Amino acid sequence: MNRRLTLAVLALVAFAACARQPESADPIVRGRRDFEGLGCVKCHKLGDRGNEWGPNLTLVGFRKSPAWLEQWLKNPHAWNVKTIMPNFDLTKGQREDLVAFLSSQKGQAWSVYPWRTPQAEALSPVARGQLIFNEAGCVACHGQNGVGGYPNNNVAGGLIPSLTLVSDGYSKDELHAKIQNGSTPLPDDPSQPRPLIYMPKWGDQLKPDEIDALVAYLFSLHPKPAAGAANSDF
Ligand code: HEC
Ligand code: HEC
Prior knowledge:
With 234 residues, the protein is an all-alpha fold. It has 2 domains: 24-111, Cytochrome Bc1 Complex, Chain D, domain 2, CATH 1.10.760.10; 112-224, Cytochrome Bc1 Complex, Chain D, domain 2 (Orthogonal Bundle), CATH 1.10.760.10. 45% of the residues lie in helices and 2% in strands. It contains 11 helices and 2 strands; from the N terminus they run ααββααααααααα. Strand 1 and strand 2 (49-50) form a beta hairpin. Helix 2 crosses helix 6 (92-103), helix 8 packs across helix 11 and helix 10 crosses helix 11. One heme C (HEC) is lined by residues 35, 38, 40, 42-44, 53-55, 57, 60, 64, 69, 72, 80, 83-86, 88, 98, 102, 137, 140. Residues 35, 38, 40, 42-44, 53-55, 57, 60, 64, 69, 72, 80, 83-86, 88, 98, 102, 137, 140 line the site of one heme C.
């Protein structure tokens, strides 16, 4: 290459470097940019924006650990074969930034929590409980209407529990305490890594009357005995 051409190329490279957006030093800022750029809100809500094909992510940093988020983003199908969430083939750096951004989401994207609007507060406890179940993200671990089926690692049966029969085993007070305090599953095989998904301590996010609404909703999920089977054993 002659000298003039070399200089011209160098000048161009320098120009391109200046014209590029400066890369933020903050992984949360970079993660937010990827979240927008990759179109995650086509399926997820964050605050009042987005769609509801997947769980609302406004509290995702409260309910899920960075270690789990990293596993999920690496390949959603490796965790849950049935998921419709695509594998975005993210680079390690992109995953680190997205994990930082998602972990920072602890409710601040809502100006008002959706179950604290005057309309929501006027609902019956069961209906308000259902709203909390869906928007706070109980649904992300316990499934639609609490039917269960979502995988966890190294737990007996391999799944997060279904909630449709909790009224058989818990009084209302016991259920309230369970939701308030959360719970960490015991590893099925102590020689293997601990379960990555735990039951969050909801008392840190929800007020007592909101937990009571959840209890009313969970009690309403119990299947009704078939007509004429009132004396059967179940
Ligand atoms: C085509 C729809 C779709 C797109 C696009 C999508 N997701 Fe998802 N995502 C889902 C669904 C559905 C679930 C629920 C879990 C399941 O199906 O097993 C989910 C679950 C999640 C979870 C776990 C949610 C929780 O509350 O625990 C996270 C985190 C997540 N997605 C992040 C992302 C990010 C980040 C992007 C963009 C890079 C994205 N998703 C794009 C559909 C989608
Ligand atoms: C991040 C995942 C996750 C979220 C979100 C979550 N749970 Fe759980 N939940 C679990 C896991 C895991 C267990 C099992 C805990 C154990 O084995 O100690 C559990 C257990 C429970 C139990 C006890 C079930 C039983 O059979 O004893 C109840 C009740 C419950 N969750 C209710 C809720 C409610 C209500 C919400 C929303 C406010 C919620 N969970 C949100 C993961 C989650």
